[in-house]
Amino acid sequence: MAKFKAKRIFTYVFLSIVAFVSIFPFFWMLVSSTNASVDVTKGRLLPGSAFIDNFNKLLDSTNLVQALGNSAIISVVSTLLALLIGSMAGYGFEVFRTKSRDIVFNILLLSMMIPFAAIMVPLYRMFATISGVAPVIGINTMAAVILPTIATAFLIFFFRQNTKMFPKDLLEAGRIDGLSELGIFLKIYMPTMKTTYAAAAIITFMSSWNNYLWPLIVLQTPDQQTIPLLISNLGAGYAPDYGVIMTAIVIATLPTAIVFFIMQKHFVAGMVGSVK
Amino acid sequence: MKAINTGDSLQKKSNLTGWAFVLLAVIGIVAFYFYPMIQALLLSFKSGKGANLEFSGLANYKRLLVDTTFRTALSNTFIYLIIQVPVMIILGLFISVLLNDSTLRFRSFFRTAIFLPCVTSLVAYSVVFKYLFAPDGMVNQFLMGLHIIGDPIQWITDPFWAKITIIIAVTWRWTGYNMIFYLSSLQNIDQSIYEAAKIDGANAFTQFFKITVPLLKPIILFTSITSTIGTLQIFDEIMNITKGGPGNATMSISQYIYNLSFKYSPDFGYAATVSYSIVILIIVLSIIQFKVAGDNKNG
After folding, report:
1. pTM here?
2. Which of A25, A220, B49, B69 matches a 20 to 30 Å C-alpha distance to B286?
3. Do A121 and B172 touch (CB under 8 A)?
4. Residue B294: its pLDDT value, please?
5. Does residue A122 sit at the B interface (CB-CB below 8 Å)?
6. Which of A74-83, B103-112, B147-156, B218-227 has the highest mean pLDDT?
7. Is A16 among the domain residues?
């Protein structure tokens, strides 16, 4: 019994320490966004009253609104396209299964092993070439950020796995009702698979909202900045204003944190479902 | 006869429909993954500055062999990999085993708290860590307050501690993520196995290594491969915490590729050569991990 109690106490102490370490940076970031830079340096850990001041300074010194808008447009468009293309492919590979398509599917999966670092140089050169022909989708455009993210092997795999659980009777019912194959996909499959779409949407939105390296390479003018680029620039300054930077980080983290808390179950289900 | 014909054409039609559904994805992946991969290979045989590239045979590969910066970046990346990935996986496993106890109080609080770092963007948390680990930052203030250290540690500017800072940062960001995978697999393990083991006199330690680890092997393999791929490409943290410094003490391969292409005068050919080293590393390490996991299964 004593041994049991000691184990219990250890568990609580250990988990509390890990939880504290996990939460502390968030706490510090929130508190610092309400304090002036001087107080942050002094190690103040109590909420202050400088948030509005920090926020105004942030608006004056950066293109915050523009960056938020850029990030929002890029993330939403990229998520919608990636979900549409990924789900159609996952559905196609599973419902219209043939040997040759299975081979194509396996080849596509190989792309998950390709590190982005290995293709960023050719991708950049590709978009630099496109710039000469069609500047609207070339370097320094949102399209250039979005395009490489709309077809991912992960989403195709994810939707294929989930389609295995989709009741095939519904397809037959749709065919008997005279729906076209596309109609069946749009009107029967999509509404039935709402939770799968929700999980995929969260994961895709988050990775798009947080994407850094590719936008860093392909967006080179200040008015094209996304939120991660803006924060990175702020953080690289030689005389950082801690309060202002933490305010920017809080604002950047809020959308993903809210999405996470509202849809925590879907998020976890999506992560875990993808490896089953 | 007629019936068979319609059957045939129906099948043909359904085959075409199948291709139509997957077409966009195939085009996208070929255009933005496979085509650049081939381009990178071709580029690695060319030399020159900016857009003026000429075929130079194996010159880039010869340069790679004697490039000390590349060697530093490679060994840094390996240090991150060898220390960070095992520490994170063991920590994640350990936490998930503790959390997989339905009688534990505040269980969902602990789980959510430990998972929370995953909602931050890599850039945002990197900047936060850069300041937390500053000479006069919270971490030093805290350690000095507890009298664990006398003088502040130069977390960012000392070559040794800078690597440790990167490793701590990455572990903070991803342990909860991996923990969720282990936790959901643990919940699928039949509790009667543990009951039986207890009756046989197996202690917690034996239970962990003889039951939990073998049953979680597929998911451990999955997380170790994804973590390896992730760590080999580490960029955002390095760029935003240390910028690769002091000197090149924290420079990773991805950052070196970035510097070669976009920071110094662009040398795309050589950058592509360096990038292929990551591809080869990922393939080799994945094969090793599969082999290790496979061998244990037989043993």
Report:
1. 0.87
2. B69
3. no
4. 66
5. yes
6. A74-83
7. no
